[in-house]
Design brief:
five-stranded mixed β-sheet; alpha/beta; binds adenosine-5'-triphosphate; about 45% helix; about 475 residues; six-stranded mixed β-sheet; Nucleotidyltransferase, domain 5; binds magnesium ion; globular
Length: about 475
């Protein structure tokens, strides 16, 4: 059976066509998507798991016997002395020493491979991390795929993505009662990352390799907005020249297509800009919350605050947590020390996301910072949101303008989807760029995955889209 998988920056979903109808995979509690977050509990070595390295044990025993023989010669000269250990006692002692050394070494490392067996996914991952922050939380691994990655980091990310995709596959198999070994994976038109083709290729390679490791033997890719187009096409009665706009968590993707026509969907072009809702969260955090931790108010370098707010970047998060900030932070040292601990940065990021959503409806909102200092409260207002969107919206405008300019005429309709399309500000931005085009706000979460399911079922053949 072949699955359509929308491995999103913020949410992951999957679906398949069963008996002609699209069926969503149901995750924990029946939800049709889960937060793309993985918690790895700290693996605790159990003494019972110890297996002695027999070669090493033999070497140690040989050396212990030599020491014992030397001791025996010394003892011969004495009238009375300690009893020598028997062969069995010698072996027990050496085995015990090896076991203690092993336990000490195991305690020092977070064993990712073992922790993955106990991985927790989705919102539960974040909750577990808050409750037991000595494990590791990886959020939105998709955001990392296109960056230059040291070998160890790449392997780490690949294991995380593998765990997510395996979770999807196993959940689907349990639900459909069939083996699932093939998938159509969605991909953004442009992944987040360092600019250039190489970074795009790397991102797709990591996804493909991870999908293989997760048990998908056959994998193909489709642009996410093209998938959304297919889904929209499926429900259209008459032909419509359409611009699909998917504003997600990490990327904004646009496709121009003729949909609803008898000859099937025709894709003319796709464009992408690697920014989305999570970037607004990042800037809102930086401009609205980080000043309470001394951003621009103490000697500490600005990069420390970027690291703290960049919760998706495992290396930056580690750098922030391990940094010695006390000297330059002055009066903010205590709050920063708390921020370095116990999932503090994750908490702030979630609050920034919540505030972003709230501020679309109300003038101001508050974030409880009392976990960092008793009684501390941050007030965020429309001004903060405007500064944050001011960093992101020009890029949305640019990609929309680019797509509109490439079209021979205005589209007959704009189909707006993706979680960020719920924002009235995003809707207003699209209206502003194409004021005369009717705007249809589709299901923000399921058009991409539904289109991927159609694609996986081989429902449509398309001419390749171009970036
Ligand atoms: N009411 C809302 N107002 C503003 N933003 C919202 C709202 N609801 C959800 N979002 C944002 O939508 C984003 C998630 O959208 P979506 O689920 O489409 O992303 P994704 O598919 O996981 O990411 P991508 O496609 O970019 O990889 C998040 O940034 C979230 O904060
Ligand atoms: Mg998406």
């Amino acid at each position: 059976m072949k699955l359509g998988i929308d491995f999103g920056t913020s949410y992951t979903a999957a679906a398949a066509v069963v008996d002609g109808a699209i069926q969503a995979v149901r995750f924990d509690g029946g939800a049709t998507q889960f937060r793309t977050a993985v918690y790895l509990p700290r693996y605790r070595a159990q003494a019972a798991d110890f297996r002695a390295d027999e070669g090493e044990l033999a070497r140690r025993l040989a050396s212990a016997r030599r020491a014992q023989a030397a001791l025996a010669r010394q003892l011969e000269a004495l009238p009375a002395g300690p009893r020598l250990l028997s062969e069995a006692e010698l072996e027990t002692r050496e085995r015990e020493i090896l076991r203690r050394e092993w336990l000490r070494e195991e305690a020092e490392q977070l064993d990712v491979a073992k922790a993955l067996d106990h991985a927790v996914f989705g919102e539960a991952a974040v909750e577990e991390f808050m409750a037991a922050p000595d494990g590791a939380l990886v959020e939105s691994p998709k955001s990392m795929l296109g960056y230059r990655l040291a070998q160890g980091v790449r392997e780490h990310i690949e294991r995380i993505v593998t765990a997510v995709l395996r979770h999807v596959r196993e959940t689907a198999e349990a639900q459909f009662g069939k083996s699932v070994t093939a998938a159509t994976l969605g991909r953004p038109v442009v992944f987040k990352g360092t600019a250039g083709l190489e970074s795009q290729r790397q991102a797709e390679d990591i996804l493909r390799d991870s999908a293989r490791r997760a048990g998908f033997a056959a994998i193909d890719f489709e642009f996410e907005p093209v998938a959304a187009a297919l889904y929209h096409h499926d429900g259209l009665e008459r032909a419509e020249d359409t611009l699909i706009v998917d504003v997600g968590g990490g990327t904004t993707d646009v496709t121009h297509a003729l949909l609803g026509a008898d000859q099937g969907p025709r894709v003319y072009g796709s464009w992408g800009e690697p920014v989305g809702g999570t970037d607004i969260d990042y800037f809102l955090n930086l401009y609205g919350l980080m000043p309470h931790f001394g951003r621009n108010r103490c000697q500490l370098g600005a990069h420390r605050y970027s690291e703290a707010a960049n919760v998706r970047h495992v290396v930056e998060q580690r750098a922030f947590r391990q940094g010695d900030l006390s000297e330059r932070a002055g009066e903010f040292a205590h709050r920063l020390a708390r921020l370095q601990l116990d999932g503090g940065t994750t908490y702030l990021n979630y609050e920034a996301e919540r505030a972003k959503i709230a501020l679309a409806q109300t003038e101001r909102t508050w974030v409880d910072l009392s976990r960092f200092e008793a009684g501390l409260l941050a007030e965020l207002d429309a001004e903060h949101l405007a500064r944050a969107t001011g960093e992101v919206f020009p890029k949305l405008r640019r990609v929309l303008a680019q797509a509109l300019a490439a079209m021979p005429a205005s589209p007959e309709r704009i189909f707006l989807t993706g979680g960020s399309s719920r924002s009235p500000l995003v809707q207003a931005l699209v209206r502003e760029l194409a004021p005369t085009v009717p705007l249809l706000v589709g299901n923000p979460s399921f058009s991409v995955v539904s289109g991927l399911a159609l694609r996986a079922a081989g429902r449509y053949r398309l001419s390749p889209a171009t970036a």
